[in-house]
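$ fold --in a.seq
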Amino acid sequence: MPLVSVIVPIYNVESQLGRCLVSLRGQSLPDFEAILVDDGSADRSGEIAEDFAASDPRFRYVRQENRGLGGARNTGLWLARGRYLAFVDSDDYVDGRFLEVLTAALEADGADIAACGVTRVLGDGSSRPDRDKSLPAGSISDMTAFLPGASFSACNRLFRRELFDGLRFPEGMAYEDCACIPLVLARARRIVSVSDALYFYVWRADSITSTAGSGLDMLQAQERLEASSLAREHPAALRRYFYRNIVGSLLWGMLSGREPTDGAAAILREGLRRYPAPSCAELRDALGWRKLPFGLLLTRGRPRLARAYARAAEGLRRAAVGLRRKSS
């Protein structure tokens, strides 16, 4: 049996897929299998994946009707035979030492999860560290302190397989990581993180995480978490999820020129009822997580947008105060 199972969900990524699979084929740790799950692609993605599987026995190709990212990952989990699990999105790629470094760190530390740093690759070919998806370097054992500020990405990590026993990604919704990975993290006794940026996240303007979301899928993810043991054992993590992800997403939509919808207002109202009295730090969290950090706007010489950002921050503060007064 392979030491590591790498699950690669594939859907209409013919222009990026080759780079991803080449980066896996060149891993310095040879003892792995790559499970290529073609989620009903309509382009040449399936053909490219089949060619890799035909030329390298470590690559396994399977095709299914379209079930979304969660469904493709679940198929990979069902097929996985490795002691450890990794997830690599098919439009991303990894350093040649990705599996070797994470496996060595996990085993040396006796951890359940190993994580590495992430580099964000932009459309013009430039890159920068992605701090949203990275964890602080070192060993983590206090999950109560760790979870409220944790990234819920499935990628850039190596998991002991048993952490997923009885857990699967939700299907038919976006932000499936946010509904599953917090539960996986909460099961871990110990997490080790290395500072090396070994995972390359390719940012696309049309991807789920780079567009202004309605917040509805994020709220669905939160509701799943609230129905789990996480709500009882780690309530601070759910509170931060609301302000950091849901409010942040709605605010990003406002800053992108979208008018707040009745649905967005209802989400904000219901969230503030569940998680009242946001602190200044929580409001900064909601505003600062998305791609418009205030200082960056100023340094790029876009004062008009910076003023819009400041108005949105003040609007959120006023909305929170007004809703609190109505509910009291």
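$ fold --in b.seq
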Amino acid sequence: MMESLPIPLLAAALEACPACGGIAEAAILSYSVGPMAAFFGFFAAIGGAMLFLLPFVFVFTMVVFFHELGHFSVGRLCGMHVRSFSIGMGSELVGLTDRWGTRWKISLLPLGGYVMFLGEGERAPSGVEEDGAFFSKSVLARIAVLAAGPTANFILAIVIFTGIFWASGVKEAVPVVAGVEEASPAAEAGILVGDLLERMDGSEIRNFEDVKRIVGTSAGQRLAIEVSRDGERILLYATPELRVFDDPFGESYEAGALGIAMTAREGTEAIRQSLPAAFLEAVRQTGQITWLTLRYLGGILTGQHSADQLGGPVRIAEISSDVAERGIGALFALTALLSISLGILNFLPIPLLDGGHILFHLFEAARGKPLPRLVQTCSLLVGGIILLAVMSFVTINDILRLL
């Protein structure tokens, strides 16, 4: 069963999305206590809960649907019979069966989804698989089906970003240094006011968003920085320091900082993009967000970044509600970010996730036969414990933020 599991939201990815910033403060509705106030307050609370949950359901459903659609589409192309396609987990709420025998359904809990292929649960005891069964296909076909889900998430992000950049343009701030803090990493490195930042950590710098993304995930790491000064290129080295910032949602987070101020020459109008240019920018943004997210995860494993910035479904619901106030464009941008997060998560080689199943199949291809059932069972158990621990951690994080 190809499952989509709840998404840990990464602060590094959220910071990489210019369309999600500047969220207005939420209005607080208060009312006096009394019989009528309590009566109307009850329905007001229900309405408020719906307004809070609807953006979350929209974002989550869209991300999960395209993930499962990837598995479904490639499975069908490989000749596999799809028994069911579910958005949500648990008991079926509503559904229909198509002419190919696939049951399409919406299930009770909007915290994931799955595609169930014929014979996917386990191999036939006789060793002869039924026609159209998952294990009747080649290892390569099965790997393609497993990889199609997270790949679809990256494609969805690129499509959304392409639409945003094509419709709204790209607002860029020229990466010219307008100020340098005393005794900051930038000052110690020799960065001066008026320097044009050209490259950082081997990546081209096109605007200050690029600077924020690279520096923000590089606290404690020595960065090579190329600047243009008086017509010549100069190579400098700086180590960002860890600082505490406030995100657009009023939450504190830690990120690297050099101690430089943005140029006053920031454009006030977005630069319109042709469709091909918007697509290329979308690919670039998706790749950069993916790379920085992976660096952030690596930093957690090495102790360079705090895992407190991870969030789960509760945090996603809160952010979705806030972003929805900025309009449909910002909500789609958040959808793209979460889609990238789901794609990254499912490519990780953790049993129970797509990446773990791909790893099993790679071992099968190398050995010429599947891994022993006991090894797979124990691996899946360990993977389940890891995922349960991660989801428990991020959920506790979410609850503590609300207290």
